[in-house]
Design goal:
single chain, 474 residues, mainly beta, 5-stranded mixed β-sheet, 37 strands
Length: 474
C-alpha cells in the first residue's frame, strides 16, 4: 500500500534516446554463428538466467503481497485504528433515525447498531461492506409517557465485543402510582445475544441502584451502594450472571461525595471520599488512596499510573507496587499498535516527555502544546485546538503539522500509513483529510456531511456520526 502511494507521487519524465542504432547482425535470426556447434543458438545459453529472473520477480511479488496482507491484518486488529485504505473512502451505507450514543459495535465480522424506534429498542447486525441486515432483535420497549426513561445500552471496551453482545435494559417504573410501586427497587435486565445470529442466550437481572456497570471481556463489573454508603463491586458472567468475584469497600464512599466506578483494564477504579484501585481479574486491592486525596489512575502497557494534586504521579507494577515517579500525566492514547513497547509518553502540558517503561529514565523531551492521540508505526499523532501533526516517537522530533483554521470537532485517526483528520473545504464545509503519516503529504480530501459530530474507527471500519445518521465509509 505504501508503494502505491509513493507511485502516486511520482512525476512523468520523458527521456530522449540518443543511442546509435546497432549494426545489423552478421547472421540471420534463424542461423547460428559459424563458430558455434549446430543446435547451440546464443539465446539458449541465456534461458536459465531468464528463468531465474522470472522466478525472482514472482517470489518478490508474492512476498510483497504477503507483507501487505500481514500489515492489513495487524492494523485492523488494533482497537482505534482504521483498516488500511487503498483509496479515498466513499459512503457505503447508513442508518437513519435515533441511534444510541456510541452504540456501534464490532461483533465478529459484523457491525452491530443499537437504535430506538417509536415502539422499541432494537439491536441490528449489518454487513460492514453493504449494510445488509444480517439479523435484528428487539431488546426492550421504547420510553413511554408516565414511565421512567428506558435508555438501553450495549457496553463494550474499544467498540469490539467478539462473539457476545451484552445489552442492559432498564425496566421502567411507573412515575405516578401508589406508595408500594414508588418504593419498588430499580431493575436492570442483562440480555446476552449471540453475535453470529442474534440468538438470545439467557437473561438475568441486577436489582437496586447502580453506580456503574461496565464490560470487561465477556463479563460485567457492577458497582452498587450499600445502605450505609459502602460500595459493593462484583464481576459477573455476562451470559449467566454468576459471580466471578465480589468486593465491598472497607470505608464509606458516598456520604459527602458521589461515588463512581470505572473499568480500565487491567484495573477497576472506585472513587468517592477515597480512591481504591482493584485488580480487574480477581478483585484484589492494589492501591488505597487517602481520604479526599483526589487520586486518579490510568492503565499503561499492562501496568498503571496514579496521580493526585498533592504528591505527583507514579508508575505502578501490575501488583500495585510503586516503581518510580513520573514528571507529568500519562498520555491517554485512543490507539496504540505496540510499536514502542518499552516507552511511556507523559504530558507535562507545554512539553511531551518519553520515559523508559522499566526505569522511568527520560529518553526525550519536546516542546509541544498538542495532546498525544495515536501511536502507530513508531509515529505519535498529536492534536489540539485547530492543529494536528506527527512526532517521531523514537526521538520526539516534529515531522509535520497542519493548522485547519477551525476547532477540531473530532480527533485524528490513522490507518497505519495515513493520518485521517478533520479539515475544511475552500467554501468552509467539513472534510476528511488524508495525509501521509511520515511526511504530511496530502493524498485526498473527502467531503463529510454537515453537522458531523464524530468520526470513529470501529472494528477497523470508518464510522461517521451526525445528530440523525450513522454512516459507514470504505
Amino acid at each position: 500500500m505504501a508503494d502505491r502511494r509513493l507511485a502516486a507521487r511520482m512525476q512523468r519524465v520523458e527521456i530522449e534516446d540518443t543511442s546509435v542504432t546497432a549494426p545489423p547482425s552478421r547472421h540471420p535470426d534463424d542461423e547460428p554463428p559459424a563458430d558455434l556447434p549446430t543446435g547451440h543458438h546464443p539465446l539458449l545459453r541465456w534461458w536459465p538466467l531468464a528463468a531465474v529472473v522470472v522466478l525472482c520477480l514472482v517470489a518478490a511479488t508474492m512476498l510483497a503481497s504477503a507483507r501487505d496482507r500481514a500489515f492489513v491484518a495487524r492494523i485492523e486488529a488494533v482497537p482505534g485504528l482504521v483498516r488500511p485504505l487503498d483509496a479515498a473512502p466513499t459512503p457505503l451505507w447508513e442508518v437513519g433515525g435515533r441511534t444510541a450514543n456510541g452504540a456501534v459495535l464490532a461483533a465478529d465480522s459484523a457491525l452491530v447498531v443499537l437504535g430506538e424506534s417509536d415502539d422499541e429498542w432494537r439491536v441490528t447486525a449489518h454487513d460492514p461492506a453493504t449494510g445488509a441486515v444480517l439479523w435484528a432483535v428487539p431488546v426492550g420497549p421504547a420510553s413511554r409517557s408516565g414511565f421512567e426513561s428506558s435508555g438501553v445500552t450495549c457496553p463494550a471496551q474499544s467498540g469490539a465485543v467478539g462473539s457476545l453482545v451484552l445489552c442492559l435494559v432498564p425496566q421502567p417504573r411507573v412515575l405516578y402510582s401508589d406508595e408500594a410501586s414508588i418504593q419498588e427497587q430499580p431493575r436492570l435486565t442483562v440480555v446476552p445475544l449471540s453475535a453470529r445470529d442474534g440468538t438470545r442466550t439467557g437473561s438475568w437481572d441486577v436489582r437496586g441502584d447502580v453506580v456503574g456497570i461496565e464490560r470487561i471481556d465477556d463479563d460485567l463489573v457492577i458497582g452498587q451502594l450499600t445502605p450505609d454508603g459502602h460500595l459493593k463491586v462484583q464481576r459477573r458472567s455476562g451470559r449467566s450472571g454468576a459471580v466471578v468475584w465480589s468486593y465491598v469497600t472497607p470505608v464509606a464512599m458516598a456520604q459527602l461525595l458521589t461515588a463512581s466506578m470505572r473499568v480500565l483494564p487491567p484495573i477497576v477504579v472506585l472513587d468517592g471520599e477515597s480512591t481504591i484501585i482493584l485488580d480487574a481479574a480477581d478483585g484484589r486491592t492494589l492501591v488505597a488512596g487517602a481520604r479526599f486525596s483526589g487520586l486518579q489512575a490510568a492503565p499503561l502497557r499492562g501496568r498503571f499510573a496514579t496521580w493526585a494534586p498533592v504528591g505527583g504521579a507514579h508508575m505502578h507494577d501490575v501488583d500495585g507496587t510503586e516503581l518510580y515517579r513520573m514528571p507529568g500525566l500519562p498520555a491517554q492514547l485512543a490507539a496504540d499498535d505496540g510499536s514502542e513497547p518499552a516507552r511511556v509518553i507523559v504530558d507535562e502540558g507545554s512539553q511531551l516527555v518519553s520515559l523508559d517503561l522499566g526505569t522511568g529514565t527520560e529518553q526525550w523531551r519536546t516542546a509541544s502544546p498538542l495532546d498525544p492521540r495515536v501511536l502507530v508505526g513508531h509515529r505519535l499523532v498529536v492534536s489540539g485546538a485547530g492543529t494536528y501533526g506527527v512526532l517521531d516517537a523514537s526521538d520526539g522530533r516534529e515531522l509535520w503539522s497542519v493548522d485547519t483554521d477551525d476547532a477540531l470537532g473530532w480527533e485524528p485517526l490513522s490507518d497505519g500509513t495515513l493520518v485521517l483528520g478533520p479539515g475544511l473545504s475552500p467554501d468552509g464545509r467539513p472534510e476528511l483529510w488524508a495525509r501521509a503519516l511520515a511526511d504530511g503529504v496530502r493524498y485526498w480530501a473527502v467531503p463529510l456531511p454537515e453537522h458531523v459530530r464524530h468520526v470513529d474507527a470501529v472494528g477497523g471500519h470508518l464510522v461517521v456520526r451526525t445528530p440523525n445518521d450513522l454512516i459507514v465509509y470504505g
